[in-house]
Amino acid sequence: MVFLNPDSAALLAQPRLLHVRGEPKPEWMTEGDKLRLRRSGKKFMDITEHEEFYADPVHALSGTANLPALTHQSLVKPLFEQVEKEHMEYVLRHMTSYYNRYYGGIHGEMSSQWLYNHIAKIIQQSPFRTHISLEYFTHSFPQSSIIARFEPKVRNFSLPLTIIGAHQDSANYLFPLLPAPGADDDCSGTVSILEAFRTLAMNGFTPKNGPVEFHWYAAEEGGLLGSQAVARYKKEQGATIGAMMEFDMTAFIARNSTEMIGFIATEADEDLTNWAVNLSREYISIPTEVYDLSAGAGSDYMSYTQLNYPSSFASEGDPLAGGKFPGNFDPYVHGVGDRMDVDDETGYFSIDHMARFSELAIAFAVEQGGWDNKWR
């Protein structure tokens, strides 16, 4: 394929500094090596633009998770009835209609622009006095990360920040320029947190105990590039992050399995994960369990763990069910088969399952950030 397309040859030969999960130190490789690592099931962080961090790490101001008592049931639970699965399906169908959402190509750039504009329309429709900002977080590659921020009535930089994240890009592990609808990985997480954001915005959510941000990261599949850049920026700005929760793959229900919320303990903050499990069991109608990932696997929450920020990871089930990966995870990710219409002997794609994660994100935002609703 390299010889058929000179542009592809240049792309695959580009040198990158990669830290493969489980290896003691980063090594210089190429974009082509990323394909080899993905195919062998190895996860990595591309630290080319953050090499100085490994040479001179900057420690977090605080690695202690915010673990408040759960006291907002009367505000949170009524919001679940407002989660709109029709809206979720609309966004899913649009985002998966792109040829792919590859972070280094035009389709990844266009899908990011569409998502940004869609979020902006939601903000425009929110009630008066709802303070929400929206920004592109640009990178050296075409696709941008997106950050939407609910502000308290009075800004106080010392208050802890709450982050809810998902990644918007998709990848075909056979070759990055091939089709990759990425319905489950991770359009499902993108849409789950988008619907949580929309529901909160439409109800005039104003946090009381610190700002709440929703992040849609670029280039997770490229080695956590977007989340690394955002987390590093937060560190350089001196931000105190009280809690971060990642939503990656929230739609698939394996055949003959129990629908559930699965938290991943691997490289996540133990105290925050335990708190999140209690949160889920308080609010969500399906079971909640804690699982481990296979060696070398991971997602954007690890960018925060790397900087000593407390992070957690919610996903669709047990990735090691039956003793091996992908377990109860979607077996069709990273290829042309990661579609909304999956329904076969392996399992099925469920927007209803995604909605449970929207509810979890709503509860996480309100219980972490509080709700200043005196004017309502």
From TrEMBL:
Keywords: Aminopeptidase, Disulfide bond, Hydrolase, Metal-binding, Protease, Signal, Zinc
InterPro entries, per database record: M28_fam (IPR045175), Peptidase_M28 (IPR007484)
Organism: Aspergillus ellipticus CBS 707.79
Domain (Peptidase M28) ranges: 146-342
Organism ancestry: Eukaryota, Fungi, Dikarya, Ascomycota, Pezizomycotina
Gene3D superfamilies, A to Z: Zn peptidases (3.40.630.10)
Subunit description: Monomer.
Pfam families (alphabetical): Peptidase_M28 (PF04389)
EC nos: 3.4.-.-
Protein name: Peptide hydrolase
Cofactors demanded by this protein: Zn(2+)
Molecular function in Gene Ontology: aminopeptidase activity; metal ion binding; metalloexopeptidase activity
Transmembrane segments: none
